[in-house]
Write a structure and sequence with these properties.
Blueprint: E1 2-6, H1 13-22, E2 24-27, H2 33-42, E3 45-49, H3 56-60, E4 67-71, H4 80-86, E5 89-91, H5 98-114, H6 116-124, E6 143-147, H7 151-164, E7 167-171, E8 182-184, H8 187-193, E9 196-199, H9 213-219, E10 224-227, H10 236-244, E11 250-253, H11 264-267, E12 272-274, H12 283-303, H13 314-317
Parallel strand pairs: 1-2, 1-3, 3-4, 4-5, 6-7, 6-9, 7-8, 9-10, 10-11, 11-12
Helix pairs in contact: 5-7, 8-9
This protein binds 2-keto-D-gluconic acid (8YV).
The site of 2-keto-D-gluconic acid has 10 residues, from loops.
């Protein structure tokens, strides 16, 4: 059996060994042109990562494909309509990375509010010999809006409310009545209320550039924007304009529109704290994700079912 590995993300060796024990594996980006068409023709399984693209054009070259397992939470790069039409199962790894991604969001927010990276540079540059570092903003008690209230969004809310006594409100497709937080069905209104806006919405056409000039203006000149969801959620040009004009207080970003590339204006922006998509990049989370991928593959091979089928395919695949 042939397994296509469609990711640039570093995979643990034990994970790769387990995949190799299941069949012949090949990385899409390493396949030589002479072998590519044949391998795609034969591949039955595909392992993707959260940021992988598996569009209809690629899937049409894979007539034997039966299962796509995503080594990650997001699957906005997968052509679900094509999968639904052909009965291709798609699984992801929901919830297994929630603690680490939530910790990343909290760390970005704490560092942006208290300006610890700038304070560190103040020492390193010798400036502390001449002056004290400026006063910053407390995270404690901060009005924090969370856009996206899935497993990770809930974990962010829990950590910020319990750990930093933040006042939490949220924006999502639907209100979740069991949550102890105020619900906003309008992101701009949430941004107006909030001192900080944390993004953990899924990517895709429905959320593309959902944070635009209007939302950034509503967040305001002291407002902080944190993004640990998808780079596509934010209109990057609008964000750069707001940072340069000081119409937003700062941002902490772990995801970007065209990873690993990004605009030079963002790189040199003193009030932008940037991380290279490391939210789930821990041994704990990545081992849990790999285990979930393998459980789905083995379950599928044994009885044609999966453990974590994405919700959009549950009806068509009747699982
Ligand atoms: C992935 C991500 O872990 O889970 C997601 O959707 O974007 C990341 O946290 C990364 O893409 C590796 O697969």
């Amino acid at each position: 059996m042939r397994i296509l590995i469609n990711t640039l993300a570093p995979l643990q060796q034990w994970f790769l060994d387990e995949l190799k024990a299941l069949g012949e594996t090949a990385f899409l980006h390493k396949l030589p042109a002479i072998k590519r068409a044949e391998f795609l023709q034969d591949a039955v399984l595909m392992v993707c990562s959260g940021g992988s693209r598996a569009d209809a054009e690629l899937l049409k070259k894979m007539p034997k494909l039966k299962l796509i397992t995503v080594y990650g939470t997001g699957y906005d790069g997968i052509a679900l309509d094509e999968c639904r039409q052909r009965g291709i199962a798609v699984t992801n790894t929901p919830g297994v990375m929630k603690e680490d991604v939530a910790d990343t969001a909290c760390a970005l927010l704490l560092n942006c509010a208290r300006r610890f990276p700038q304070a560190y540079r103040h020492i390193k540059s010798g400036a502390w010999l001449k002056s004290s570092f400026e006063l910053s903003t407390s995270l404690h008690g901060m009005r924090t809006g969370i856009a996206g209230m899935g497993a990770i969004g809930k974990e962010i809310a829990r950590k910020l409310s319990l750990g930093f006594s933040c006042e939490i409100a949220y924006f999502a497709r639907h209100e979740q009545k069991d949550l102890p937080y105020c619900f906003f069905n309008d992101l701009t209104k949430l941004a107006s209320w909030a001192q900080a806006l944390v993004l953990i919405l899924p990517g895709g056409k429905n959320t593309f550039h959902i944070v635009n000039d209007e939302v950034l203006k509503a967040l305001g000149p002291e407002g902080l924007l944190i993004n640990v969801g998808r780079g596509s959620l934010v209109d990057t040009r609008a964000l750069i304009k707001a940072l340069d004009a000081h119409t937003i207080g700062g941002c902490g970003l772990d995801v970007f529109e065209r990873e690993p590339c990004m605009p030079a204006e963002l790189l040199r922006q003193e009030r932008a704290l940037l991380l290279p998509h490391v939210g789930s990049a821990t041994l704990y989370s990545r081992d849990a994700m790999a285990t979930c991928v393998l459980e789905n593959i083995k379950e599928f091979l044994q009885n044609g079912r999966t453990k974590t089928l994405v919700p959009q395919l549950k009806e068509s695949l009747q699982q």
